[in-house]
């Protein structure tokens, strides 16, 4: 019996091999970097303790789904494998190793240097990550933290590379062991994972300065340095996943010229400009590995991308002849011009299960049908190819997103190795492959407000990464279950356990479908986690870190013995290998119209208007046959994944809506607040103005009383004429000082009474309290008392009515009157009025009110203020007095410009009484 046929695919198969072949079940400590040689590799049992101190992703929580993949007794496909007796089998030494997870911290760029990174390496293998928002929250009581991730966590890695790490060093520690493996017949997978702008492309491809070449160009350098002088003539070419087929040496001579690949169009010019600006051979890695010189090697390269859950050949523009079908063109991408419009057509490739005829020990992975591999004979040639793929990726990627890689880029290097003595024996052929994947940045839809096509694109990126995480989780859980059953007493028969293992959901995304063989078959897997510690997406970075913690708990099988590969059945030519549909796209074909431009040498700008047609995958006649080998896809799992994706989209849309509503609400509240503030400001300025006005009027009234009483001419005090002159001068100088539109420091617009205010402020008109010399005179004639409740009324007679309504009290009368001699107000140019007699200071003998009235009448008589006199002035202490004093036929008329000042309490009223004839 062919023992290989008993091998099963899926996690169960891994478990079987692990249990059968793991020789020393010791629990190793994670090594900081992968071993360079097989002898140093640590043999690891599948049972691992979680090394991350943070919570890992939650288990799916659903019942393990089983199908035939879960069964160790899964029957091999009914299809017969080639019956060649020399069918090779793998070596006996298979070990299991955890996925290596390396953290690379990106250095600060530009303005980021001013920011504090939120990653703090604690050692070579552990790092602390602290949410910057939690610091901000501690400082501000208004800030609240919306993150679901823990505010601070410690994560462990196989090794942590600080920002200062240089490309050569990074390559030597992470990738060189895989390069050695692939040249010795082992498979290897390396993928860079991280959020957008975290440095994945820089790590894989490199920068554009000296010594910044990434791990891909370095890998090519090391391979060609090592196989120098050991290259075969390329009489076999790799097909499908493990197969190889004979080809005529030389048929695969490459014809790749970027300009030629695009034809004579503006697009060609853009392509060549882009090629010039794309970093090429920046620096070369001098490392050379020692290889078995009994073998000869041929190196093949392919470059695919997965975009929106479709797989494309990035070297699709290269036209070559496959030799097997003479005359047939094998281009997957074409650029044709119709009436000035360039139509760029590329065809999505199908992912097919590897046929049983190719299978190695029953392991059936998947391959990308029609993805072409090109034989490369030098590092320069290989880098040129990569560069062409890069340009295509940039072209198609730019059409999607100018800044960020929106696709997963996948370069696969296949090494065909044959013994020099058996170079014509296909059974002695060995094939190994190394795939380097630059994953699309895990999309931060929440932060980038992605919508429409971008949202769908982001959804697909996230879906494939989510499925990758799910696969790892299921693999880990399956491996743990098998390991537990092995370690338990009397539980060495893991048959029952294996039956209950969950199906690893590789098939739910193109990315995992294409990579599943690395997880299920043999090969070492390395994961590079790129983190930008200045990035605002703390949550996304936490997710990336948790993902790496999970990956470190998954084990893959490594086989120390070289793996001989079978010579596959001849390739069946199918329609998928034929040329693309040519001509204009059919009307129902979805197309995208885009403009792409580039700046070439001498700052020449090239621009091309393109119509992009992405043809769907085609199914060929052999697909049915292939489908026989396919494991049935579980519709429930598929539906669940779709649902998760839909929910994620809905969540995102809801978040967007919330953000919009929040922004609108904030704006509304702001507007309302502004309006209220404005109203308040107006109210307060109105009050201030009226207050000012009132004070002005009061002040003016008081000063006018003094003027009219002629008190300023006494005892050296300024004569009224002098005061008026001074007033005028002061007014003039004040008005000169004040520019039109002047406003004081308070910002309040000048009051219409500002001039009056200024008068008093400037001191040109002395305040009553300032006129010390006249104080006694004033006291003698009138007492001026301020009252906070004073009110100034206009000349509308209100005062009169008000006063009449209010009964007079005795206090009023007492307070209101201070005996004073009657004063005759001198008219301008007339001699100053005679000095009034000092008031009698004797005790009051009569009722104050009566005394006031009589005294006032006497005063009037003394001053000759009769009804015929002009400009007569009389001070009437209160309304009673006024009523009593004003003789029949005389009415109270305020002089024009003189305010009728009234008080409810404790006030003196200055009245100018004119005779009827004067008014
Ligand atoms: N280790 C590093 N040293 C210097 N510069 C770096 C480093 N890593 C990244 N950069 C720079 O950071 C920027 C973003 O890097 P990169 O384009 O590689 O991010 P990315 O993760 O591939 O983003 P995306 O997923 O959007 O494609 C680039 O300008 C790159 O040159």
TrEMBL record:
Protein name: Kinesin-like protein
GO BP: microtubule-based movement
Biased composition range(s): Polar residues: 46-57
Record-annotated Kinesin motor domain positions: 98-554
PANTHER family the record matches: KINESIN-LIKE PROTEIN SUBITO, KINESIN-RELATED
Bias-annotated ranges (Basic and acidic residues): 89-98
Keywords: ATP-binding, Coiled coil, Microtubule, Motor protein, Nucleotide-binding
Membership in a protein family: Belongs to the TRAFAC class myosin-kinesin ATPase superfamily. Kinesin family.
Feature: compositional bias, Acidic residues: 613-631, 784-817
């Amino acid at each position: 019996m062919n023992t290989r046929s008993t091998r099963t695919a899926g996690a169960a198969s891994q478990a079987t091999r692990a249990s059968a072949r793991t020789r020393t079940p010791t629990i190793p400590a994670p090594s900081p970097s992968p071993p360079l040689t097989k002898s140093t590799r640590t043999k690891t049992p599948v049972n691992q303790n979680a090394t991350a101190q943070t919570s890992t992703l939650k288990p799916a929580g659903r019942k393990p789904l089983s199908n035939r993949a879960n069964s160790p007794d899964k029957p091999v496909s009914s299809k017969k494998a080639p019956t060649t007796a020399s069918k090779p089998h793998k070596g006996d030494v298979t070990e299991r190793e955890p996925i290596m997870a390396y953290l690379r911290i990106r250095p600060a760029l530009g303005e980021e240097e001013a920011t504090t990174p939120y990653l703090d390496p604690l050692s070579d293998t552990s790092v602390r990550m602290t949410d910057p928002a939690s610091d901000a929250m501690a400082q501000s009581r208004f800030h609240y933290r919306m993150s679901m991730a823990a505010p601070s966590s410690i994560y462990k890695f196989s090794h942590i590379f600080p920002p200062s790490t240089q490309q050569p060093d990074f390559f030597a520690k992470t990738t060189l062991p895989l390069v050695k493996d692939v040249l010795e017949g082992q498979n290897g997978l390396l993928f860079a994972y991280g959020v957008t702008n975290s440095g994945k492309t820089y790590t894989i491809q490199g920068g554009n300065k000296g010594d910044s070449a990434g791990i891909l160009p370095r890998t090519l350098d090391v391979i060609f340095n090592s196989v120098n002088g050991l290259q075969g003539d390329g009489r076999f070419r790799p097909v499908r996943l493990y197969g190889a087929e004979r080809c005529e040496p030389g048929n695969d001579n490459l014809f790749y010229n970027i300009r030629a690949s695009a034809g004579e169009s503006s697009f060609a010019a853009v392509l060549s400009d882009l090629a010039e600006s794309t970093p090429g051979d920046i620096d070369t890695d001098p490392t050379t590995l020692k290889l078995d010189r009994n073998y000869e090697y041929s190196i093949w390269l392919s470059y695919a991308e997965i975009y929106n859950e479709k797989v494309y050949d990035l070297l699709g523009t290269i036209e070559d002849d496959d030799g097997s079908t003479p005359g047939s063109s094998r281009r997957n991408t074409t650029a044709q011009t119709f009436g000035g419009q360039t139509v760029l057509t590329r065809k999505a490739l199908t992912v097919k299960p590897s046929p049983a005829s190719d299978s190695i020990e029953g392991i059936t992975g998947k391959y990308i049908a029609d993805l072409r591999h090109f034989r490369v004979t030098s590092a320069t040639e290989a880098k040129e190819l990569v560069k062409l793929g890069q340009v295509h990726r940039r072209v198609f990627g730019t059409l999607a997103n100018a800044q960020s890689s929106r696709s997963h880029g996948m370069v696969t290097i296949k090494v065909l190795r044959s013994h020099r003595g058996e170079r014509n024996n296909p059974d002695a052929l060995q094939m190994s492959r190394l795939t380097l994947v630059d994953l699309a940045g895990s999309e931060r839809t929440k932060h980038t407000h992605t919508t429409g096509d971008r949202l769908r694109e982001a959804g697909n990126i996230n879906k494939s990464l989510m499925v990758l995480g799910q696969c790892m989780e299921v693999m880990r859980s399956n491996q743990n279950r098998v390991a537990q059953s092995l370690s338990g007493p009397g539980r060495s028969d893991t048959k029952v356990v294996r039956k209950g293992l969950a199906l690893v959901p590789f098939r739910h995304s193109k990315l995992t479908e294409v990579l599943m063989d690395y997880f299920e078959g043999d090969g070492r897997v390395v994961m590079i986690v790129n983190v930008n510690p200045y990035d605002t997406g703390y949550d996304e970075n936490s997710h990336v870190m948790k993902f790496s913690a999970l990956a470190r708990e998954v084990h893959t099988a490594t086989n120390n013995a070289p793996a001989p590969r079978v010579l596959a059945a001849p390739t069946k030519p199918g329609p998928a290998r034929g040329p693309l549909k040519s001509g204009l796209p059919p009307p129902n074909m979805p197309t995208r119209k885009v403009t792409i431009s580039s700046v070439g040498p001498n700052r020449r700008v090239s621009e091309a208007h393109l119509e992009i047609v992405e043809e769907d995958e085609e199914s060929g006649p052999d697909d049915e046959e292939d489908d026989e080998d396919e494991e049935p896809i579980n519709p429930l799992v598929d539906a669940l994944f779709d649902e998760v994706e839909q929910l994620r989209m809905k969540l995102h849309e809801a978040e967007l809506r919330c953000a919009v509503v929040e922004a609108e609400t904030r704006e509304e509240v702001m507007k309302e607040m502004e309006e209220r503030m404005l109203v308040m400001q107006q109210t307060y300025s109105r009050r201030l103005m009226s207050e000012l006005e009132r004070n002005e009027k009061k002040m003016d009234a008081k000063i006018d009383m003094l003027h009219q009483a002629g008190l300023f001419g006494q005892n050296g005090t300024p004569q009224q004429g002098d005061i008026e002159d001074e007033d005028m001068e002061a007014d003039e100088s004040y008005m000169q000082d004040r520019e039109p539109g002047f406003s004081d420091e308070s910002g309040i617009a000048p009051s219409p009474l500002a001039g009056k205010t200024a008068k008093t402020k400037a001191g040109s008109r002395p305040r009553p309290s300032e006129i010390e010399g006249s104080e006694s005179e004033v006291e003698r004639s009138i007492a001026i008392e301020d009252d906070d409740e004073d009110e100034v009324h206009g000349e509308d007679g209100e005062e009169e009515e008000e006063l009449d309504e209010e009964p007079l009290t005795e206090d009023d009368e007492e307070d209101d009157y201070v005996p004073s001699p009657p004063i005759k107000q001198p008219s301008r140019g007339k001699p100053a009025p005679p000095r009034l007699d000092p008031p009698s200071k004797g005790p009051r003998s009569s009722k104050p009110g009566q005394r006031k009235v009589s005294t006032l009448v006497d005063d009037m008589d003394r001053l000759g203020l009769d009804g015929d006199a002009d400009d007569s002035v009389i001070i009437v202490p209160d309304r009673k007095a006024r009523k009593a004093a004003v003789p029949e036929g005389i009415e109270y008329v305020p002089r024009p410009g003189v305010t009728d000042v009234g008080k409810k309490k404790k006030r003196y009223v200055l009245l100018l009484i004119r005779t009827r004839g004067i008014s």
